[in-house]
Amino acid sequence: MTSDMQEIAITEDKPLLTGQADAAKDAAELAARILLDQGQEHSVETSHGVLHVTLHGTRTTRRPAILTFHDVGLDSKSCFSALFKFDEMQEIVKNFTLIHIDGPGQEEGAPTYPPGYQYPTMETIAEMIPAVLQFFNFRSVIGVGVGAGAYILSKFTLANPDSVEGLVLVNIDTNARGWMDWAAQKLSSVTSTFTEQILCHLFSQEELSSNTDTVQSHRERISKASNLANIELFWKMYNSRRDLNLDRNYTFKCPVMLVVGDSAPYEEAAVECNSKLDPTTTSFLKMADAGGLPQLTQPAKLTEAFKYFIQGMGYMASSCMTRLSRSRTTSLSSSYSMDGSRSRSRTLSQGSQGGQMPPSPSQTMEVSC
Question: What is the pLDDT of residue 140?
Fold first, then answer.
């Protein structure tokens, strides 16, 4: 019986030492951070074509996702990275899934469409968004759009009111192009390069005259884009947009925050849009020294406003507000106009004392900060 016995090697499973466990934890956190920073890229099939979509964070559906759409001449990275990678924004980012949509053929390195390609209209692009929500299994979103992206998300929200819980619209223009606009655009196309036309759309005259670093970097990026022809198609369709025909009876069913720089090309359009919306659910943030793209030039101020907007929807307790937000309460409220000062400072002070955000004010809140 002894000869039939075989030698069996028994290996003891030893638990990780404390240092090893910490190292494994750090490695996992690093991997999660890299995934959060870089995002997961997806090609989402819709009934009107394919959309390039980048998802950041966990795919939890307990809360609405934050869904973004960029402006003409930008893609999701160049339009939103400065805002959503801003340090103070991380309190929001870690609690929500971010879904960044690139317009058809607008993502960096996208192949150029063939000559004669019929680019989708603004309405058609808006009709592609429900497929994105279905792809990621989200029933509702908080939309953040800039320029053309703000128009597209507005169309989507009007057609799908139950799918949008809140809307942040930067540089919104709800009007169709008039004959004067059309004539000016024709003249500009003769006297200016396409890149300069886009820069005039994105930036204020002051920024263009000063030729700021931001203007220079975007001029170089746009002029060297391999998909420049696609950008031009998007631009033409945006200029062919229809009037949204908003009024107090035909408007958004969700809370809305309008944002515009005080010298932005679309300041007047944003003011007009504000006059058409329900004042009990609309706030209007006019930002000083923000230029044409406040999400790039003033991410701190826009982050703070966005936090209060999210908190007002009940998704962030006031205890989560940062020291920066609390310390800025007095300085911010003191810089507003008299009417805006009373309503805004009341919101800020109550929001930073541990209670929930107060209900939307009874009138539209217009502030300059």
Answer: 97
